[in-house]
Amino acid sequence: MRVLMVAPPGAGKGTQSAVIAAHFDIPHIATGDLLREHVAQRTDLGRAVQEHLDRGELVPDDIVLDMVRAAFDQAKADGRGYVLDGMPRNLAQARALYKIAKDQDMTADVALHLQADDDELIRRLLARAALEHRTDDTEDVIRRRLALYHAVTAPIVDWYAARGILVSVDAMRPKERVARQILTALEAMRPLLDYVPEHARRPIDLTGLGAAFGET
Ligand code: AP5
């Protein structure tokens, strides 16, 4: 199973990627975590990117692409899939990632789009700020991260829809319900992935399912 997450800050990329990784026994590659590790260890790379993270700006594409290329090498050597959390963030990254993955025969089976309202995302990230100490979880920087998401990341959703691998989920519900819906969808798709060629795939929109079962 090869999954990548496309979602705004606070939608649950990290939370749901951990569930997917545990369920399918695949590595969870999280670009934000990798970058924060460099900052914490005060590596040269960490010093170079710290300001970008603190301000909620994207770090240069080459840096994250190199990280993901190395993580894909490892996943490929282990003969496993992946769940990629935090990448791509713009169309250039999406295209470069596709090329890296294609070269390794590791293109994504599913681009999981977690949908949630900005007000809820801000509420979640401010709640996290009270418990943890991420330097980018201040209200100003959260708003900057969201604005950047809408401006440069959200447009890639259409690119994945056109490729037929987009699966959209309503992430406004409690995390356990979101997880159950994601795992159910991925399990249903799993046996088909090897048989349905990419050009024959179609986007799947599960965001209306809650209402169909009487959820408000
Ligand atoms: P990154 O670490 O990827 O941060 P982010 O995109 O801002 O996302 P978050 O980690 O804040 O949220 P999430 O969607 O993972 O939600 P989570 O599960 O944590 O990136 C950080 C920075 O690194 C970027 O700003 C950039 O500088 C740099 N960077 C990273 N990748 C890059 C790239 N490819 N290119 C360039 N720069 C890059 O949940 C959030 C909170 O909500 C938690 O407290 C959780 O418990 C709670 N929660 C989750 N789901 C629910 C739910 N359903 N209901 C209620 N609460 C929930």
Write the layout of secondary structure elements.
Elements: E1 2-6, H1 13-24, E2 28-30, H2 31-40, H3 44-55, H4 61-77, E3 82-85, H5 91-103, E4 110-115, H6 118-131, H7 139-153, H8 156-163, E5 166-170, H9 175-189, E6 204-205, H10 209-212
Parallel strand pairs: 1-3, 1-4, 2-3, 4-5, 5-6
What can be said about this structure in brief?
The chain has ten helices and six strands, in the order βαβαααβαβαααβαβα.
Could you characterize what this model shows?
This protein has 216 residues and is of the alpha/beta class. It is built from ten helices and six strands. The chain has helices at residues 13-24, 31-40, 44-55, 61-77, 91-103, 118-131, 139-153, 156-163, 175-189, 209-212, and strands spanning 2-6, 28-30, 82-85, 110-115, 166-170, 204-205. Strands 2-3-1-4-5-6 form a six-stranded parallel beta sheet, with helices on both faces. The protein is globular. 32% of the residues are buried.
pLDDT averaged over residues: 95
Number of helices: 10
What ions, cofactors and ligands are bound? Answer: BIS(adenosine)-5'-pentaphosphate
Name the helicity range.
55-70%
The largest sheet is:
6 strands, parallel
